[in-house]
């Protein structure tokens, strides 16, 4: 039987391979996208982009297509359609994203994200932008 003399030397290489494999982002979005690249969701993606800027979402999140200060308080929102969960709790569907945007503390009382008072139409518009953003990148590849 062959033994590896120093298995601890393999650990960094194995760790690097696992991490690089996790970075692979050729996965399709988790739900169907419409012809315009947006999720099948009632909402105006362009208005959603404007709301993200106006509501100050970029104070905590990096959002592709919305300029503002660089922030690392909340997670980056550039690949929402490929995430398995919204906020690590809800299965990622357009409806659950809207639910989260409307009242994060109702979903997770321990979240740092405040209830920003979004109305249903505003949350749908923001969700449409966040979900369309991933679809547009997918088409560009």
TrEMBL record:
Residues of the signal peptide: none
Species for this entry: Achromobacter arsenitoxydans SY8
Keyword hit for Cell inner membrane: no
Protein name: Putative cytochrome c
Annotated Pfam families: Cytochrom_C
InterPro entries: Cyt_c-like_dom (IPR009056), Cyt_c-like_dom_sf (IPR036909)
Gene3D superfamilies: Cytochrome c-like domain
Any one GO molecular-function label of the UniProt entry: heme binding
Keywords, sorted A to Z: Heme, Iron, Metal-binding
